[in-house]
Write a structure and sequence with these properties.
Layout lengths: L1 H27 L5 E6 L9 H8 L2 H4 L2 E6 L6 H6 L5 E4 L1 H9 L4 E6 L6 E6 L14 E4 L3 H12 L9 E4 L5 H5 L5 E5 H11 L3 E5 L13 E5 H6 L1 H20 L1 H11 L5 H11 L15 H13 L9 H4 L8
Parallel strand pairs: 1-2, 1-3, 6-7, 6-8
Antiparallel strand pairs: 3-10, 4-10, 5-8, 5-9
Helix pairs in contact: 2-10, 2-11, 8-12, 10-11, 11-12
């Protein structure tokens, strides 16, 4: 009898709470927004424009979400999202693939850019026009074994020897700082650093990864969440992806206005660079995909196979569990 009384009391209090919430919503005319956190992979840039557009234009609010966009700080987006301390994040297929084989429950829920736009850049004066020209030159990177493997993959296409390349760890130094010293070429995203070079009047040669290997045409960056979020709160994931999709579609159709929104959110950015980058990226967010955010199994599997071939993966990788298209707007 006592248990029944407690049960009824709990039920009555819960009902009262719901009614109070309903009355509050009716009184204000507004539905209470669900607060979620989105962690960027880096400082704000044009990879993230659609997210800031979704916030500024009210697309997240229309989906019932109050999204706090934050920078990663000392703890990266992958760790925060995997641990559940943040609901969503910006990552890349490279890091997510390695995380998955280590049992980290990250899942990619949308591709921000459809094809890999990165490659190796060098000043025109270095005369590096093909991967074979890497021989005898110095590469500046961040100290990952992936870098040498990628350079080697490109050089093998031209029967060149990666061991004839001097590879140094330049830490956090940017492209412009490195090439002023003893570095001949570096790995960049043309849509940002390459365009910055144009604005500076510094001509460069660009060797894109996708020109030499389909396996290196991976998704970078991507939006992520964790497995528990998908299992326990799929409606929030669906709402988030729908709003993000609207944001990027707006950026595709209105690059100038989208650039203004990013500049407003991150006023320290170079406005001319943001405008130029936004124009360059506008047709690359979706590119040849049927819709923005779409991901293909073969892209995930191809890159994982490449990593395995280069002994960069220790463990079994299940590509089907690493990403999903189920939350994209129908």
């Amino acid at each position: 009898m006592k248990k029944l009384f407690v049960f009824l009391l709990v039920a009555i209090l819960a009902l009262a709470g719901c009614q109070s919430k309903d009355k509050k919503e009716k009184a204000t005319g507004k539905k209470e927004l669900k607060k979620v956190t989105l962690v960027l992979d880096w400082t704000p840039n044009t990879n993230h424009t659609g997210l800031y557009v979704a916030k500024e234009k009210g697309f997240f609010k229309e989906q019932g979400l109050d999204v706090d966009i934050i920078q990663p700080g000392s703890t990266g987006a992958d760790q925060l999202v995997a641990s559940g301390k943040a609901e969503f994040g910006v990552s890349a297929q490279e890091s997510l693939t390695q995380a998955r084989v280590q049992g980290v429950p990250l899942v990619s829920i949308a591709a921000i850019i459809q094809h890999n736009t990165s490659g190796f850049a060098s000043p025109i004066a270095k005369n590096i026009k093909t991967p074979k020209d890497f021989e005898g030159k110095t590469y500046g990177g961040w100290g990952s074994p992936v870098e040498k493997a990628v350079i080697d993959s490109l050089m093998k296409k031209e029967h060149a020897d990666v061991n004839k390349v001097s590879i140094i760890n330049a830490g956090d130094a940017d492209y412009f700082t490195m090439v002023k010293k003893n570095v001949d070429f570096a790995w960049i995203y043309y849509g940002w650093t390459g365009l910055e070079a144009e604005l500076r009047g510094e001509k460069l040669n660009m060797i894109y990864l996708t020109d030499y290997s389909k396996k290196l045409d991976y998704y970078t960056p991507v939006l992520t969440t964790n497995e528990k979020m998908i299992q326990n709160d799929p409606e929030t994931v669906k709402a988030f992806v729908k709003a993000a999709s609207q944001g990027y579609q707006y950026a595709i159709k209105n690059p100038d206005q989208a650039a203004d929104i990013l500049i407003k959110a991150a006023p320290d950015l170079n406005a001319k660079l943001v405008k130029k980058s936004q124009q360059w990226l506008a047709d690359k967010y979706q590119d040849d995909a049927k819709q923005w955010g779409e991901q293909k199994l073969e892209i995930w599997q191809n890159y994982a196979n490449w990593m395995s071939d280069n002994k960069l993966l220790e463990g079994k990788f299940d590509a089907k569990k690493a990403f999903t298209n189920e939350f994209l707007p129908q």
